[in-house]
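FORM 7B: Structural annotation worksheet

SECTION A. Query
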Amino acid sequence: MIELQQLEKTYQIGSQTVRALRGVEMIVEAREYVAIMGASGSGKSTLLNMLGCLDLPTSGNYLIDKKDTSSLDDDELSELRGKKIGFVFQSYNLLPQFSVLENIKLPLFYQNGVDAEASHQRAIKLAHLVGLGERLEHKPFELSGGQQQRVAIARALINDPLIILADEPTGNLDSHTEQEILDLFETLNKQGKTIIVVTHEDIVGDRAKRVVTMKDGNILRDTKHETS
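SECTION B. Predicted structure
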């Protein structure tokens, strides 16, 4: 599903050169549930941006579904993101003027040839999947933090992506709601989605099937374990 080959990312900040990624190599198989962990500055967020095709490596190769992303132009990268990757962010990134249903359907506005009625019904189905079937017309300010994150997860699923990338998805949630969101990720993984979560929270890493620990732009440890 995903293969990273000697991935490097270098930033120039004034006269200082920062090596955010230093020859990272990793393979993620389909249907894996991976937590990427590490201290601030370890490179985990930079790696997530690479995985989401939101940024390009300085050198090395990133293959997704056997396609080398370095050979794609901006339009092709956008198409790849739209069809194969769903994003979930810590800050939810919902549009405040849109309802739950409209926020879920938002990624479809950027797709050509979308069947409006089929998309509408899929959005309703996803709202029910995340437990918001009774709140379709509510605006984000009428929802709790956990409910907003559920909307964000449903939005990430609307294009039926192969991969869900989540950046600190429980960072703004209380412990009870955090467990509910992690239960939802677990369910999605069992349904066949590949889940990659960036987190600094051990409780999130404990629920994943594999933990990749980063330090100074390198993979320090890569540990697989079974979850109950």
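SECTION C. Observations
The helical segments are 44-51, 74-84, 100-105, 116-129, 145-157, 175-190, 202-207. Strands lie at 2-13, 16-28, 33-37, 59-64, 67-68, 85-89, 163-167, 194-198, 210-215, 218-224.

SECTION D. Sign-off
Analyst initials: ____
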